[in-house]
């Protein structure tokens, strides 16, 4: 995902905000530098949901999948979540900020 790669030039730690019709990626940098990008995609999520993660784990997963279609299985922003495609699955622990 190019959106995540752009943010990692500023910070490895990112905030991902899921909205009904988009996903927003923000840097979580202690410096006064900020990066933000938005991916327009229908998520079907009715209420805003935020995750803080180390982008490396997301990028490692994306490097393993054959196409850009995968599932994100979420419960709460402070609990581990699952990234899954037809051949690969990974569990990621969010960062507590």
From TrEMBL:
InterPro entries: DNA_clamp_sf, DNA_polIII_beta_C. The keyword rRNA-binding does not apply. The keyword Transferase applies. One of its GO terms (biological process) is DNA replication. Residues 11-94 form the DNA polymerase III beta sliding clamp C-terminal domain. GO terms for cellular component: DNA polymerase III complex. One of its GO terms (molecular function) is DNA-directed DNA polymerase activity. Its EC number is 2.7.7.7. Gene3D superfamilies: DNA Polymerase III, subunit A, domain 2 (3.10.150.10). Keywords: Nucleotidyltransferase, Transferase. This is DNA polymerase III beta subunit. It comes from hydrothermal vent metagenome. The lineage of its organism: unclassified sequences, metagenomes, ecological metagenomes.
């Amino acid at each position: 995902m190019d959106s995540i790669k752009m943010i990692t030039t500023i910070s490895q730690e990112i905030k991902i905000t899921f909205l009904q019709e988009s996903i927003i990626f923000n840097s979580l940098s202690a410096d006064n530098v900020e990066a933000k990008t938005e991916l327009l995609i229908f998520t079907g999520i009715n209420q805003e949901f935020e995750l803080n993660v180390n982008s490396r784990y997301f990028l490692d997963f994306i490097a393993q999948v054959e196409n850009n279609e995968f599932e994100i299985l979420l419960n709460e922003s402070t609990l581990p979540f699952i990234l899954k495609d037809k051949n690969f699955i990974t569990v990621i622990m969010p960062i507590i900020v």
